[in-house]
Amino acid sequence: MATGSRSLEKQTSTDELPKQLPYDFLKKITNDFAEDRKISGGPFGTLYKGIVPGIGPKDDKVISVKKLQENAPMPPNKTFNNEVQNVMALKHVNIVELVGFCCETQKKLVQFDKRYIMADITESLLCYEHLPMGSVKVNLFGTKAAEVAASRKDWDSRFKIIKGICQGLRFLHTLDIPIIHMDLKPENILLDANMVPKIADFALSRVFGQEQTRLCTQTVVGSYGYMAPEYLYRGEISAQSDIYSLGVIMMEITTREQNSSGNDQPSARKFIEKVQNTWDKEQHIASKYYSLGPQGLQQVKLCIKIALECVSIDRKQRPTIVEIVERLNGIK
Question: Could you read off the pLDDT of 50-75 as tens digits, one per residue?
Fold first, then answer.
């Protein structure tokens, strides 16, 4: 691309960033991907804070820049194409906005067979709206969890987050060409300043044809503790794959207990059984949310009921996201 970073800085002082951004520009706004600009890291890439200069200091715009890993579970070019093609045009209050991207080949000195050679390295980066509150995991189970729990609106915030996630998923599943996320988990749901959740990280997402309801793959990649059993063991992908993950997330948010399933429990069955054996009782719900009135307790009970239906072993027994949203909206 011929556009230089200096002229680009003038353009990016407006409300909308250009869709394609030069690598040198992204390197500059992240201070050469400095450690103190690092927001988070994962198997697919590292997220950095990028500061786009405005006319004055108060006009600076902050974006999040994700630098894809070369040794990711999926090839960077496939991850990059998934996110750009599947998310670029999406506009919804509960979906993180992709504001730009970069795919450039750079000459770099690399070690090969005990020698250093010049090689062409393709740098793939994705730029999103910046959400300073961080993920649901950080806010409900990490360093900010105590602040949320101390709030009188603890359940109100949690119920709002659950409903927002469901609304975002409904948007994806009911597009003319539906998108299946395939990696729903608390780390991939970000919160804005008003605790509005936004589904993020579409690296594993799949696009379905209008008449297509499921497909199969031999490459099973995802997050242990949230993977639907039919995907894990048979490679089956469908909208119900996301519904299973949603059920586990709803349990975590509602029970305030984190699913700690690892390699030995990729579908979180122990966690699910624990919730089923304890939280399916009104007395237990009332003891854990003793400050809630009848309406709030009904909301908690409904969320547990829906979550348990979502994690049914038989995917055909799981509710659709449209049904889930209707049921959640039916109880205020």
Answer: 998 876 667 788 999 999 877 555 55
Give the fold, CATH level 3, of 14-129.
Phosphorylase Kinase; domain 1 (3.30.200)
pTM for the whole structure:
0.84
Which residues have a catalytic role annotated? 183
Per-residue HEC secondary structure of the chain comes to: CCCCHHHHHHHCCCCCCCCECCHHHHHHHCCCCCHHHEEEECCCEEEEEEEECCCCHHHCEEEEEEEECCCCCCCHHHHHHHHHHHHCCCCCCCECCEEEEEEEEEEEEEEECCEEEEEEEEEEEEEEECCCCCEHHHHHHCCCHHHHHHCCCHHHHHHHHHHHHHHHHHHHHCCCCCEECCCCCHHHEEECCCCCEEECCCCCCEECCCCCCEEECCCCCCCCCCCCHHHHHHCEEEHHHHHHHHHHHHHHHHHCCCCCCCCCCCCCHHHHHHHHHHCCCHHHHHHHCCCCCHHHHHHHHHHHHHHHHHCCCCHHHCCCHHHHHHHHHCCC
Span 291-300, pLDDT tens digits? 899 999 999 9
Residue-range domain boundaries for the chain: 14-129, 136-329
Q: Establish whether domains 14-129 and 136-329 are of one fold.
A: no
Looking at domain 136-329, does it have CATH number 1.10.287.3510?
Answer: no
